[in-house]
Design goal:
- The chain has 161 residues and is an alpha+beta fold.
- It has one domain.
- 34% of the residues lie in helices and 24% in strands.
- It is built from 5 helices and 7 strands; from the N terminus they run αββαβαβαβββα.
- The strands form 3 sheets. It has a 3-stranded antiparallel beta sheet with strand order 5-6-7.
- It is globular, with a radius of gyration of 15 Å.
């Protein structure tokens, strides 16, 4: 084991900063990482941009932990990862090991991995970008990387049309 598990970091972030989020289920994820650190967390999440932005920050923090503990040489642009949209109504947020194990991810997975990949001296955040109405009358969001130099869209670079 590599010290505190990243799923614990994620839950601590969520519990301390995101009101109304409730853990529905948690457990190991199949096809485990060598240290057995991949976890499946099912959360009941209030629908608000503040909630989602807090969850994005928590996933970036967890991905930075992975980067500092054995996943430091990864890059999402090395040809092993491609963009793939999730089916409507399904949202699975993947850590870096899960992303590399599957070889594909959506905008949340790619943007949070990219932010974690950048040096901390580059002030980058995973940011919600409003895209318009969704099929259920809510708002459709896309997640990009924001820096002082502008917006980077890993999803578009990795195949999103």
């Amino acid at each position: 084991m590599l010290g505190i598990e990243p799923a614990t970091l994620f839950l601590e972030d969520v519990a301390s900063s995101v009101p109304g989020v409730r853990v529905v289920d948690a457990g190991p994820l199949g096809g485990a990482h060598p240290e057995g650190l991949l976890h499946r967390l099912v959360l009941d999440v209030p629908r608000s941009t503040d909630t989602y932005e807090s969850l994005l920050r928590a996933l970036v923090r967890m991905n930075r932990w992975y980067r500092q503990n054995g996943w430091g040489s990864f890059t999402i642009y090395d040809g092993r990862i491609r963009y793939r949209a999730e089916p409507p109504g399904q949202e699975v947020w993947q850590s870096i090991p899960a992303l590399f194990a599957r070889g594909e991810g959506d905008c949340v997975d790619l943007a949070t991995a990219r932010v974690a990949q950048l040096p901390k001296t580059v002030r980058a955040t995973a940011r919600l970008q409003e895209e318009g109405p969704n099929q259920t009358g809510g708002t459709l969001y896309h997640v990009v990387v924001a820096t002082k130099n502008g917006i980077e869209d890993p999803s578009r670079k990795l195949g999103m049309r």
